[in-house]
């Protein structure tokens, strides 16, 4: 059986891991949130919710670190119970975030394509340069909705459309024979894959944190159970020690000499110096008292 001291050290190690996971969770969630806002015109707003919750839960990890260290090291039951309660809440919340993100992952690409199609058609119709769409083409490495053919009828006559088309240039293709080679894939195929990967990373963070919380819950519950057993053992030891001390005290009292009871039921005083001083044998000799003589009575003259 694992000792209580080892489990206590394990709880402290887990608390340190929880602190690191909180910092990583805040950093990675913030990075993913930046990627969402970077192309927010073509990403559904519902994808922001899980990432904001993960950032908040990252601070929850850091707060749990304090409870995870103070509770086991000082054996405070109140802090241990709080740690178990908050860990259970985080476990359920992070699992829900993972499931929620996977549900969003199924419907988000369709919504993203609708937003992208609307933006591209508006750009072609109004004939203006859409810098957000151009940035998406350059970073995602795609061109138009279905490919470079979407620009075929416009980039030669309109400068703004030509500028958007120029962001489709594939820099990985050597320009020996051609002056311009666009990306072969359309954005309505490439960008949903990018969005699904982003949501998959968000869901994985939720599920990984769920596993971490489940492990921490097992560790702290195991420590709490061992602590209760240890406290029961200490209580039994104290009770046994008190019983032994009480038995020794009673035994020492029975070994002491008991005073005898006199005829009238009174206990004679102990023989000591004061008793010897007050005994008649030790009193000094006193002269006997003379009895007072009767007074002289004059004789009756008649009897004489």
Mean pLDDT: 81
Element string (H = helix, E = strand): HHHHHHH
Number of domains: 1
Q: How many strand units? A: 0
Protein name: Tetraspanin
Keywords: Membrane, Transmembrane, Transmembrane helix
Region (Disordered): 243-304
Biased composition (Basic and acidic residues): 283-293
Which features characterize this protein?
transmembrane; mainly alpha; Tetraspanin; single chain; Tetraspanin_EC2_sf; 304 residues; disordered C terminus; membrane
Describe the structure.
- Residues 243-258 have a biased composition (Low complexity).
- InterPro entries: Tetraspanin/Peripherin, Tetraspanin_EC2_sf.
- It is found in: Membrane.
- One of its GO terms (cellular component) is membrane.
- By secondary structure, the chain is mainly α.
- The protein has one domain (4-232).
- 67% of the residues lie in helices and 0% in strands.
């Amino acid at each position: 059986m694992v000792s209580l001291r080892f489990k206590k050290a394990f709880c402290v190690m887990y608390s340190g891991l929880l602190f690191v996971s909180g910092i990583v969770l805040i950093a990675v969630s913030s990075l993913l949130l930046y990627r969402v806002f970077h192309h927010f015109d073509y990403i559904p707003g519902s994808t922001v919710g899980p990432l904001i919750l993960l950032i908040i839960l990252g601070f929850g990890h850091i707060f749990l670190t304090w409870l995870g260290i103070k509770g086991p090291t000082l054996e405070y039951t109140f802090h241990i119970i709080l740690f178990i309660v908050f860990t259970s809440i985080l476990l359920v919340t992070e699992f829900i975030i993972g499931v929620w993100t996977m549900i969003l992952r199924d419907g988000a690409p369709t919504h993203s394509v609708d937003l992208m199609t609307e933006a591209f058609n508006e750009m072609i119709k109004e004939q203006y340069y859409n810098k957000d769409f151009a940035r998406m083409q350059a970073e995602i490495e795609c061109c138009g909705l279905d490919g470079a053919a979407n620009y075929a009828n416009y980039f030669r006559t309109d400068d703004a459309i030509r500028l958007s088309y120029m962001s489709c240039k594939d820099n990985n293709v050597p320009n020996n024979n051609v002056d311009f080679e666009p990306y072969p894939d359309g954005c309505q195929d490439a960008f949903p894959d990018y969005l699904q990967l982003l949501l998959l990373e968000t869901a994985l963070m939720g599920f990984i944190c769920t596993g971490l919380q489940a492990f921490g819950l097992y560790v702290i519950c195991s420590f709490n159970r061992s602590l209760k057993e240890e406290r029961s053992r200490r209580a039994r030891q104290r009770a046994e020690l008190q019983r032994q001390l009480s038995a020794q005290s009673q035994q020492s009292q029975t070994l002491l000499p008991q005073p005898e009871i006199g005829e009238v039921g009174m206990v004679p005083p102990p023989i000591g110096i004061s008793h010897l001083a007050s005994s008649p044998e030790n009193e000094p000799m006193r002269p006997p008292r003379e009895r007072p003589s009767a007074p002289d009575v004059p004789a009756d003259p008649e009897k004489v």
